Amino acid sequence: MIDAKSTFNMAIRSLKINKMRSILTSLGIIIGVSAVIIMLAVGTGAREKIAKDMESMGSNILVVRSGAANSGGVRMGSGSKPTLTLKDAKAIEKSCSNVLSIAPYSSEVKQLTFRNQNWSSTVGGTTDSFLFIRNYEIQSGRNFSNEDVKNASKVAIIGNTIATELFGDMEPIGKTFRIGNVPFKIIGVLATKGQSGMGQDQDDISFIPITTAQRKVFGTDFPGTVSMINVKATDSEALTNLEDEITDLIREKHHIGKFQEDDFQIRNMAQMQETIKSSAKTMSVLLGAIASISLLVGGIGIMNIMLVSVTERTKEIGIRMSIGAKPADIRVQFLIESIILSLAGGIIGVIIGISGAALIQMGGAMSAKVSLFSICLALGFSGFIGVVFGYYPAYKASLLNPIDALRYE
Fold first, then answer.
1. What's the CA gap between 338 and 373, in Å, rounded?
2. Distance CA 331, CA 373 (A)
3. Residue 73, burial from CB neighbour count under 10 angstroms (0-12, 13-18, 19+)
4. For residues 312 and 93, is the Cβ–Cβ distance under 8 A?
5. Which residue(s) pair with 372 in the sheet?
6. At CA 1, angle to CA 309 and CA 384, rounded to 5?
7. Backbone φ and ψ of 382, nearest 5°
8. Contact between 386 and 343 (Cβ < 8 Å)
9. How much is the CA Rg of the chain, to the nearest whole Å?
10. pLDDT tens across 178-219, in order?
11. pLDDT of residue 67
12. Which end of the chain is more exposed for a tag (fewer CB within 10 A), N or C?
């Protein structure tokens, strides 16, 4: 049997003789591998962006929202019925287990003014725990104190967008601005969070004590009510039990009968995050699977060209067999040619795929991140294609009769 090095060199020489045909044969693999790399990069980038957005919203959180109002048979959206109160929040904190932190919250869009500047933005009434639960950080100044909440102090913490729009280059800490007609002293500026996964500017917001919001800013016919209660659990495993505890507790406090519907809703943010991540992963796999069809088409192209090559080189095969080459030598040579074509196409496809992903990332329209796994997967699959689709032509060549092959015209 001819040694492997000689067989490899003969395969290389055969491919060099028909350079253009070799390149065109590999084109299908090049396109397939580059498509797989780009599609998986887009999927990975989207998944990481979603994870980052979800992280900015906080983790291990249950959001208890007030129920939907019903007017004349028409049901309003969630939160339209003022059923939750500060007392509910205190009861949850006192009675439920595995509660790490809790923050009641209500918000309205208000007009903010400072001297001759004005800006319309969301004002959230809450407690000092809200920043911790929702992963907000103080850039400068301080958070609310218990005294601020207890005394309904007119103090505010503002986001960076508001600081820029109202104060420009001035230092906002210590300045007094107005929310509606009520003056508030700025005690803190939030660190930048950027846009949320829903495209909302998370820096275009200001927070004031919930008691101040209820008594002096938000007009309401139901004093003491809040639109939602944020509950942070000690860990993700405690969320399900905590959700059940809160449900039982509020139903009892609101005197809801056994067969009556809840007048509140509980959203498990962890489950929402997992659902969104799972959807992104499924989409990534789907895109990769669609792109891998190009690889199969490329493999069929390789097999087609290899079969043509066997036919064209029948006499060459007969000469090699007549001087001592065995069927296994012929089979290995053609198989090596197929694998080289496929792997060379795979390597070029990886380079094009990485470049394409980089261009997408630079474009900024979407996030794309190439992983080592996707590169190994694409190269491994292209090599596998070379073996699978090259075997039949190689096997067919090895079955040729030397005498018939020498007589072939």
1. 24
2. 32
3. exposed
4. no
5. none
6. 50
7. -65, -40
8. yes
9. 34
10. 998 899 999 999 999 887 766 678 899 999 999 999 888 887
11. 74
12. C
Phi-psi sector, 370: left (phi>0), alpha (psi -120 to 50), beta:
beta
Residue 177's identity, in one-letter code, is: F
Cα–chain center distance at 78 = 27
End-to-end Cα separation, the chain, in angstroms: 27
Dist CA 395 CA 38 (whole Å): 35
- The vertex-76 CA angle with 70 and 82, nearest 5°, equals 75
Check residue 76 and give its pLDDT.
62
Q: Tell me what pLDDT residue 231 has.
A: 94
* Strand 205-209 to 117-126 pairing: parallel
Location of structure tokens 């939160």? 79
- pLDDT exceeds cutoff 90 at 130: yes
Is the pLDDT assigned to residue 50 strictly greater than 80?
no
The structure's pTM equals: 0.65
Cα torsion 67, 121, 155, 88 to 10°: value is: 10
Q: What type of residue is 245?
A: E
Distance CA 119, CA 200 (A): 16
Q: How far apart are CA 103 and CA 227, in angstroms?
A: 11
